[in-house]
Specification:
Blueprint lengths: L5 H21 L22 E4 L7 E7 L7 E8 L2 E6 L3 E5 L6 E10 L11 E4 L10 E5 L18 H15 L1 E5 L2 E5 L4 E5 L2 E4 L1 E3 L5 E2 L6 E5 L3 E5 L8 E3 L4 E6 L2 E3 L7 E14 L2 E3 L4 E9 L2 E3 L2 E3 L7 E4 L2 E2 L2 E3 L2 E3 L6 E4 L17 E2 L2 E3 L2 E3 L9 E4 L1 E2 L2 E3 L2 E3 L6 E4 L10 E4 L2 E3 L8 E3 L6 E4 L2 E4 L7 E3 L2 H5 L1 E4 L2 E4 L4 E2 L8 H6 L7 E2 L2 H4 E3 L7 E4 L40
Length: 572
């Protein structure tokens, strides 16, 4: 009893006394009848009446109804949208939020009592949300090292910090009263374009959505645009990243920043989580503790024109966890300990509250026109794909990478590769590298066409399969093999020359070539030039593909009688 407050001690003692008194009264009178249990309540409340919508907007509906009656007492109400239980209310009103504009929704309500009896549902009420308001004029803010966060953010009176500019955008979104669903997250949505122009100078990083999720739209995006010379050298105030977009971002663009680790960015230069239509354009992100660019559950992602390098622990660009339709285009990723580009569906990180993020798969990826070199000293392919399906990998130049070139497999993903296409890539492996292409645990067809696969390691080769089942699911032809190792290892062990492989009915139109004959300068060093040499055996030897009409530099394919093999088209 020590430590109890006096009032609590008195109540406990009084309760004990009552129990003792009850025991004394009943001791020795075993014939006393037991008190019968109360009868079970089986009567349901009456049906709620008068369901109506006092008001609604573009993204929410208010509901109200008249109270039900019950023989014991109504304890609350269940609100349904369509056939699904939407929520519960203790009173006779409810507000449904995060809705789509100009959309009709159907609602019903039933009453419940303490015994768990539910009334019948009320007659359905249909409500159509309002049309979205016209886009606002939006705002443009400026940030300058000579500015002051007490300023109004105009060109003449800029803010000082990136974080303050991000906070102002958040305040504008909240004040507008609009919301939008981003996956399973309700975000405040800006009504007009919000743009932050960052002038040259040195800055700390920033984060968006830490306390309040904020989103743009196709007609009213949020843009952070850096002028040349705008450099982030230290982490933001919340996470170990330079720029961090927390869950709920949509139609946000990060463009033109240089993010160089000055000693405090132990995670990513740019990090994006649980988002839709985020674009990372023309940024430079280097020497960070873990990743140059990291994303998680990022639907309709665009990573284009960036340079990532020097990631100490892992990858240049890492697209992680289940998502749909990421595009990774025209980036340079080099000198990273791990992969140049890593994709991982990782079913252990699935989010059961939203269908796109609950598959353990990355689907619909487009990976094109990237240049990746000198990656993988700690392991990890130049392009690594775990649990990736319905992907296209085309026109990528890979050289001097130290693990594999392109690897498709299943370790963390829910399933293996399926319906993937590997077209028109040039892969020149380092002397200590592994296979140009490695395929493992396929779940469906993978198609290889018009790739140059050069391997300098005599113990490794052009294409490696883990098992016969992977060979059976691969459609490979019109490729060019070169180097000192085997062209193909069909079982992860037995090396075959191209002639031996073709004798099994594989790669019927594929051929071989040497470095001097293939390229202007295939040295694998910094001055390498992988344009095709005059008379190259790759010229006009590919299969012309309707889905690949340009080369790495945007030149038309084919320039001759058929498409050239590799990333470059000769003579255009």
């Amino acid at each position: 009893m020590h430590g109890l407050k006096p009032s609590r001690r008195f109540l406990l003692c009084a309760a004990c006394f009552a129990v003792l008194l009850l025991f004394a009264c009943h001791s020795g009178s075993s014939a006393a009848p037991a008190t019968p249990p109360p009868s079970t309540d089986t009567v349901a409340p009456s049906v709620p009446g008068g369901l109506t919508s006092p008001s609604h907007s573009a993204n929410q509906v208010q509901l109200a109804w008249t109270a039900s009656t019950d023989n014991v007492g109504v304890t609350g109400y269940k609100v349904y949208r369509g056939v699904a239980l939407l929520g519960q209310a203790s009173g006779t009103a409810y507000t449904d939020t995060g809705l789509q504009a100009s959309t009709t929704y159907s609602y019903q309500v039933c009453a419940t009592d303490a015994a768990g009896n539910d009334s019948a549902k009320s007659p359905a009420l249909s409500v159509t949300t309002s049309a979205p308001p016209p886009p606002g004029s939006g705002h443009t803010y400026y940030v300058d090292p000579s500015g002051d966060d007490a300023n109004d953010g105009s060109a003449a009176h800029p803010f000082r910090t990136l974080q303050h500019a991000a906070d102002v955008v958040t305040q504008v979104a909240v004040a507008g009263g609009l919301t939008v669903k981003v996956g399973n997250i309700t975000s405040a949505r800006v009504s007009g374009p919000e743009t932050v122009i960052v002038r040259a100078g040195s800055y700390a990083g920033f984060q968006l959505n830490w306390d309040t999720p904020v989103a743009g739209s196709a007609s009213a995006p949020i843009t952070f645009q850096a002028d040349p010379g705008a450099v982030i050298t230290s982490r933001n105030g919340k996470t170990a990243d330079g720029i961090d977009l927390e869950p709920g971002s949509a139609y946000v663009t990060i463009s033109g920043f240089t993010i160089i680790n000055g000693g405090t960015i132990s995670r990513a230069g740019i990090r994006v989580c649980n988002s839709d239509h985020v674009s990372l354009l023309d940024n430079v992100s280097g020497n960070h503790g873990t990743w140059g660019i990291f994303t998680s559950h990022a639907d309709n992602l665009l990573i284009q024109g960036n340079e990532t390098y020097g990631s100490v622990l892992q990858h240049g660009i890492y697209v992680s966890n289940a998502c749909v339709n990421p595009t990774v285009r025209a980036n340079r990723s080099h000198d990273n300990a791990g992969c140049g580009l890593h994709f991982n569906g990782d079913s252990s990180q699935d989010d059961a509250t939203f269908v796109n993020w609950n598959t353990g798969l990355i689907t619909g990826a487009l990976v094109e026109n990237n240049t990746l070199f000198n990656n993988g000293t700690a392991g990890g392919s130049a392009i690594n794909m775990d649990g990736v399906q319905n992907a296209t990998v085309r026109n990528n130049l890979l050289y001097n990478n130290h693990a594999s070139g392109i690897a498709m497999f299943r370790i963390d993903g829910a399933q293996g590769p399926k319906n993937n296409a590997i077209y028109h890539n040039t892969i020149d492996m380092a002397a200590n590298g592994r296979w140009a292409i490695r395929l493992d645990q396929l779940a469906g067809t993978v198609t290889l066409r018009n790739n140059i696969l050069y391997h300098r390691n005599s113990g490794r080769g052009g294409i490696d399969f883990t098992a016969a089942a992977d060979v059976a699911l691969t459609d490979s032809d019109y490729n060019l093999f070169g180097g000192g190792g085997p062209a193909v290892t069909p079982d992860d062990a037995t090396g075959l020359t191209l002639a031996q492989w073709q004798a099994q009915g594989k790669d019927a139109h594929s051929l071989t070539g040497t470095l001097p004959a293939l390229f202007i300068n295939g040295s694998g060093a910094s001055g390498a030039d992988y344009h095709l040499a005059p008379g190259s055996p790759a010229i006009d030897k590919g299969q012309t593909l309707p889905s690949v009409t340009q080369d790495l530099e945007g030149k038309a394919r084919p320039a001759g009688t058929a498409s050239d093999i590799g990333v470059y088209e000769y003579g255009t």
